[in-house]
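Researcher: Please predict.
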Amino acid sequence: MKFRKTKSLILTLLIVCSLVLSVRVWFDEKLWPGGYNFFIMFKNTPVFSKIFNSEPSYSMPKENLSRPQKIVITNKDKRTVFYNSDSSFDSVNEIVKNFFTQTLNSKDNVLNSSTVAEDEWYDVLRNDELLDTRSIYVDYSLAYSPELFAHFIGIQNSWLEGDVAAVKEFIIAPVNSDNVNALFYVKDFSNNSIMKYYISYSDKGALDTAVSRYVKKTDDSNSFAFELNLDNRSGGIGSGVVQKVFLDSMVTVSTSTGDKPVIESENPLKSGGFSPNAMLNVFEYPNVSPRHYTDVDGTEYFVENYSVLKIFPNGVIEYTADKDSMGIEISDDLSLYESLNRAIEFSENVWNAVVPDEPFNVLVTSDLTESRQNDGEYTFYLDYYCYGSPVTVDVDGINHAVEIKVKSGKIISYRHFIRKYFSAGYSVNPIPMIDALDEIYSSFSSSEDEIEIKDLYLSYIDDGSFGDKTPAWSAEIRGSEKLFYIKGE
């Protein structure tokens, strides 16, 4: 009797395995004539997707998203700016991150709070010995919802969710008091209101160390735009001068630059060894499809039941779903956090299909905020960075290395500019930032409208051409998607 039960159990398992394998063949091998796959409409539904798609592990580069773009430490009349590409940045950032994780994890650390005027924000940062200012300004390259920011710094939730809608900039100001160890300022990115918190922090010594040890000498080469009267808030550069171009108050203006490496680019799609089969697999296309053709420009088209995949000769890969509901499912969780995780993982799979042995050096460059209007619909931008500087893509209407549109857990549109970068073997010294500003002022002097520069930084410009690429000053103009950049060395 026992042997009979065992035999029945084994037989049942074999039948189940046979059914599962058969269904997998129906879904994955595309045995239908003309490349048509009857089961594609079922495969993209949540129920079947859960059964037949394995659960991938997170590929989110949290260590990059949790790193600020820059940290500015001011100690009376001394100041040092740390960018995330600097060798000493990690030591400073560790102190800042520890403060964030401990402070934001529990509101028990908050002794008091209030909303303050903008003037107080600037006064705390001002590089003035008479004001006896000591501060740590932390600036992230993009804005986050408070919930998402908490995830990235390593905590589950943050009490900031009830106070502000989006975060990007913070100030930590150590103070000497029996109960209060630091003043903590948080700017709400959604409306520029400023919250001030009186914080009890057990490791105040680390904050004091950051302000004293990491600012050892006077550094006059870095000032905030508001200190130089270059922002609209301060009324311009002087009486009798009509100023059309302004800087965001928090742009740090440098008077000198060091040597920066020159880079070259390569299109891996044309450098040999690339086969479309691996790419087709990532986009869930049949490896062999008669609905494939190449146009006169050399662009390859792959047409599936509900989507089109294009591979352009210049290295652009573009996918578009005909119907939003038939896009590539990456998650049944519609949250911003989960959608971003899966979108980044998908882009890594696309990259690995072309250059499997090369690191995918990108940063997320789209703001990660959420509102009721999102409703599970997001657009994510990723951009390459090389030798500590971003690569600005400017190719036929393409302004980012990767553009991903996600709706209801599915990728409905995807565009990827495939490029590899490497050193050209020599460096140059770019023109000073002040000189770049002069050129910007000259370029917009005839404009009838006021121009505000949100940020100004060095980046490599990739316009699709090949050859040496030198770093250029890139200006983000408020209200414009296009960068204004100035080349020169």
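Model: Residues 268-418 form a domain with the TATA-Binding Protein fold (CATH 3.30.310).
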